[in-house]
Amino acid sequence: MQKVLLLVFIATAYTAFAVPVAEPEKEHEYSRYIQMPDGEGVMHTVDLEAEPDMELLDEISRDPANNLYLLYTRRNQIVSQTLVMNDANSITRSNFNANRPTVIIAHGWLSNQFTSTNYIIRNAYLRKSDVNVIVLDWRRLAASDYVTATRGVPAVGRGLGQFLNFLNRVTGAAFNSMHIVGFSLGAHLVGNAGRELGGRAARVTALDPAGPLWNYNSNRVNSNDGIYVEAIHTDGGSSAGALGIGMNVANADFYPNGGVSQPGCSTNLCNHNRAVEFFAASVTYNHFVGRQCSNSIQVSTNTCRGNELRMGNDDLRKTGSGMYRLDTGRTYPY
């Protein structure tokens, strides 16, 4: 009898430890008052229970064209050309080339077309290859308080999706040649844009998607928003100051250096911004190689031994799924 019990115990232990099972996602709880950065790195106190500006939200919802779409190409790398929704001439007279890939960049909260996120990614792409880069300036909503901006992100995302539909109708630019990239709040915005396109965009890349007010939010970026959806998490974790969502939201979720703190950084803001810098570096060098992990413990203990998948890059045919860990250096190109 004792031998039977011993065998049962051994079999149970083997099952528990030999077959890794992904852990359930852990939702991070935020205090009512938190510190959030603007596009210049200045921290602002945010009341997560503040009443949203319903008048502004109504305006944003009624007018999806209430944003700027700014085109950069190798023929105009510094000065943009403005593309206007429902104005075909603004597109046909521009340098937009439907035969080239199109990259769309969406900034985060309290930011605009001049925020560093945009030109860091734009310059990486235009130095690498001949593409269309469209910067979405959604400052009308992004300049509002954080609660209002969060509430309006889905509408702006849908507006971006409608604009890309219009671009497709006017020029024939294929959805499978489009890569939509967003940072922080912009990461959830591009998810909604991809959803508006029925998940037909080649890629959606979420750079450290914002955490506050998004843990339980059905409008957050998800794996159905594009043919391939990728998230790069750099400031997750359970600390009170974490700015990123720090949980799986995509087809492939990358956690560089564990996804909580980054080498060379001493603040949450620095960790958060590294997602942009990592992605831009990956477009240039395609040098980040992640190892697939079975659970979040492997991510945090750096014991992932699964398949390899490169983080970031500009490959429009990229595929993959799961969660991945990789280590980087302290300075560019990391």
From TrEMBL:
It holds the Pfam family Lipase. Residues 66-306 form the Lipase domain. The keyword Secreted applies. SUPFAM superfamilies: alpha/beta-Hydrolases. GO terms for cellular component: extracellular space. The keyword Signal applies. CDD domains: Pancreat_lipase_like (cd00707). Belongs to the AB hydrolase superfamily. Lipase family. This is Lipase domain-containing protein. It comes from Spodoptera littoralis. The lineage of its organism: Eukaryota, Metazoa, Ecdysozoa, Arthropoda, Hexapoda.
